[in-house]
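Aim 2 progress update. The chain analyzed this quarter is reproduced below.
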Amino acid sequence: MVQKRGFPNVLVVLMAVLVLGGSVVGVVVPLLRAGHEELSSSSSATANLSGLTSFAGSVFGITGASAGSAPAAPLTTVLGTTTIATSTVTTFSSTTETGPDKGTTYDGSPAGIAPNSDIEFFSNLTLNVSNPSESLQKAAEIASSLGGYVASSTYSASLATVTLRVPGENYQSALAQLGALGTVVSASSSSDDVTVQYTDLNATLQSLLTEQTSLLKLLSQSNSVNATLDIESVLQKTDAQINSVESSILQTAQLIEYATIGIDFQTPVAHALSPLVVKLSATPLTGMSPLSVTLNAVVSGGVQPYFVNFNFGDGTSAQGQQLIHQFTQAGRYNVTVSATDQSGNVSLAWILVNVTSPPVASGVTAFGACVWGLFTGVVEGIIEVAAIVLPVFAVLYVGVLPAYRRFSRTKQADRAAEPQPEIP
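Predicted C-alpha cells:
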C-alpha cells in the first residue's frame, strides 16, 4: 500500500518540477538576459525587448518610431538638380550661371573643378527652330551617336521638349552639336559636386553591412524563439536601410556617369504672346507612406525662360519642372506649383496627394502575440527542463529505487527475525 501511494506522489512532484522549472527558463531567464545582451551598436535596445516589454509598449502606445527613432526626411529628386534632405547625408552643390564672367560657359566647360571629384552636370537649352518635331528627332540621333539616350520627350506642332542623357566625357561635344540645331533663345548650365555625399553613402553602406553580419551571427547562435523573432525584426529593418542606401548610391553614380541636357524646341514667336499657363500632373495620387510621387509641370505661353517652384505641402519645396518627391508621413498634401516668366507673369496650379499609413497591429493583436510568446516560452522551458530532469528521474526510478526497496525489505526481515523480548 505504501508503494502504490508513493508512485502517484512522485509523479505529482515531477510535474510540479517541470512546470515551475519551465516557467523560470521560459519567462524569467530571458528577462534577466535582456539587460546584458547587445545585438548591435545601434539596435540593441530594440532587439532585447522581451514579450512583457512589447506588451507594455502596445498598451501605452509606444512604437518603434516614437521610442527614439525620428521619421525619415522627405527625399526630392529634381531634373537638373538633386536635393537629398536627410539627417545623415548632406549634399554640397555648386550651381553657376552662364555668361562671360561666370564659372561655367555655354559649352558646359566647368571652371576650377578639382581633379578626382564626383561631379553631376546639367544644362537646359531653349532653341527656336522651324520644325520642333524634326529637331527633336535630330537631337535623339546626336545623343545616340555619342553613346547617350533619350530619357523623356514630348512634342506638338509648335513645341517639343526632350531630356537627354549623354556620357560625361561627351558632354561638351553634345552641347555644341545640339546648340547648332537652331537659334539659342536661352541656355543655362549647372553642376553638383557630390564627392562628399558619395563618400558618406558608401561609408553608411559599409556600416550597415557590418551590422547585418553581426545580426546574422547572433541569429545563427540564438536558441530562443523570442530572441530569434527580435533579431529577425531588427535584421529586416537593417536590410531595408541597406537597399535604400544602395539605391541612392546607384542613382548618384548614374548622374555622375551621364550628364543631363534638357532642350525646348519652339517655333519663333511672330504674334502676340499667349497667356502664361502651367499644367500639373502627378503619379501616383494615393498610396502608403513612404510614397514617391512623380510630378511634371508643363508651362506654355508668356515670355521664356520660366522659373518653376514647387511647394509640396509638407514643409519642403523645390525648383524644376520634372521631379520626384517622397512623402514620408501620412496625410493629405496640397501640392502647388508656380510658374513665373521673364516678364513677371505668374501662373499657379495645384493637385491633392493622399498618403495613408501602413497597417499596424491592433492592441488585441499585440496582446494575443504577447500571450502566445509567453506560452511558447514556457513550453520551450518545460522541454528544456524535461531534457535534464527526465533522464535523472529515469535513472533513479530504474536503478536507485529498486535497490532502496530491496534494502528496506531486507532490513524489515532482519528485524522480524530478531527474538522479541519477553514481557514480564
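Residues 92-268 form one domain. The radius of gyration is 37 Å. These observations will guide the mutagenesis experiments scheduled for the next reporting period.
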